Amino acid sequence: MCNVGKIDKIIRTVIALALFAAAFLTPYWWLSLFGIVALLTAIFGFCPLYALLGMNSGCENKENKEI
């Protein structure tokens, strides 16, 4: 199951790294929780919010491929 495309994965990874840095440099440790969520969705290629909203940012389904 996949609903997160390549560019979306890169953006999520950059955002996750920025959130980790912000959590480390400020007293707002809870920012790292958002960073973890962003990083996990980038790694697994699945976003539950996208699934709930019926969105797909570029991941191809096997059913949609033409021969």
Keywords:
67 residues, mainly alpha, 60% helix, 0% strand, elongated
Sequence stretches where pLDDT stays below 50 over 5 or more residues: none
| Residues in β-strands, percent | under 5%
Written as H for each helix and E for each strand, in order along the chain, the element string is: HHH
Q: Can you tell me the overall shape?
A: elongated
User: Helix content range of the residues, please?
Assistant: 55-70%
Taking the sheet with the most strands, its summary is: none
**Number of DSSP helices?**
3
Average pLDDT, to the nearest integer? 88
Q: Give the domain tally.
A: 1
Secondary structural class = mainly alpha
Please compute the radius of gyration using only Cα atoms. Answer: 14 Å
Strand count? 0
Quote the distance from N terminus to C terminus: 21 Å
How would you characterize the overall build of this protein?
By secondary structure, this protein is mainly α. The chain has one domain (6-58). The protein is 60% helix and 0% strand. It is built from 3 helices and no strands. Helix 1 packs antiparallel against helix 2 (31-44). The two termini are 21 Å apart. The mean pLDDT is 88.
